[in-house]
Design brief:
single chain; alpha/beta; N-utilizing Substance Protein B Homolog, Chain A; Rossmann fold; 3 domains; 17 helices; 12 strands; 13% strand; disordered N terminus; RNA-binding
Amino acid sequence: MLHYPKKILYKRLTMIKEYTDGVCSTITEVSAPRRIAFDLLRAVIIKKMRLSDALIDHSGNAKLSDRDRNFARSLVANSLRRLGHIDQVINICLTRPLPMKASIVRDVLRIAATELLLLNIPPYATIHSAVNLVRSQGEDKFAKLTNAVLRRIDRDGRSVINTLPAFHALPKWLTKNLRQTYGDDIAIAIAIAMQQQPMLLDITVNTDHAYWARTLKAKILPTGTLRRQMNGRIDRLIGFAEGAWWVQNAAAAIPVQLLGNVSGKTVVDLCAAPGGKTAQLAARLANVIAVDQAPQRVKQIKNNLDRLQLTAKCIIADATKWQPQFPIDSLLLDAPCSATGLIRRHPDIPWLKNERDVTKMAAIQDQLLNAAFSMVRPGGMIIFSTCSLLREEGSKRIEALFSRNPYVTRKPITANEIGGLSELLNEDGDLLTRPDHLANYGGIDGFYACRLIKNKNFNRIL
């Protein structure tokens, strides 16, 4: 039989009591990654900050080791990715609803439930840290409840979360829209795809796809994009410093291809930042005019072009008001939107947006389409695109354009132009990619694009 000194025995008994009733605590510290994950979650949910901005803004994040920083980000990203599911599990494990003013406690439970159910962190470490985090926020009266609820979640939560419908992970406004637009089967497939974190790097190269695929250990997708596993620092990969390639999601690289041969033509890239499409156009020898209203984002475009040794005329301007000096040949409008097509990579998006934002964005997209029409010459081409899954920011904007402007027509996209992938086209011949598409390759962002032609007999600007 083992005999412990009194001090050690007392410490062990105290720690056991803390675990079982959430009242006594010998350790008041909360691990830095957990505290930062809690702060980041509240920055997104309460302050409506983008997670990427919150990561930069949080002073403690930079002080973490790479391992702890990755853990903190994984905690909050996984929590956001399955937030609807996690909330349902928490509600089931509560004996009575949390008061509205207890948002701090709910967010602590969300982070801890993520550890227990999604990351398989040992329950003692998770529950102990969560209780101390609640206390550190001045919510001592909820310490016992936190302990009890998390013990129930650890015991019963997995059987609950595994039976929940996939689209219950998303906010109700988005679930409703996806089900109405695509039907339940596709909505479920989209929701499942959104829950998978893509550890993939998509790359656009100037030339010699086969060489760079071998060099970077990448696959060539049917659309021409190179894709490899995400590991290590991007700027340390061969060819990055030399400007041989740039990072660009496969879906985002398609719209430029729809313009055809742009060599020697004047092409305007509206809402151009961060500049991936500008780089594509410049690499294809177009005379590119990149327009964006944010000075910092235009600076980013210029920096990217410098690294790639490409040139384009960059202009800081409101795209709804700016006009070129003469009618141009082609125009690419990648309009601001809800970005619902990017949720796989940015799980904060559903919790930052709502139906009012979609309506607001749709009005801006209409203004941008009107402006784009006025910029191109008769017979000129417009590519309208959004990284959205919602019809309100895609095909409905084109329907609205046709209803108010009889001088523009659709030029359907063919499967041959996109690597033979007919499943990426809708019934009108527009591009419509979804996160569940190209599953054998690891998926793809949601994206919409329509190709438009300004009628040749149009001799005046409306």
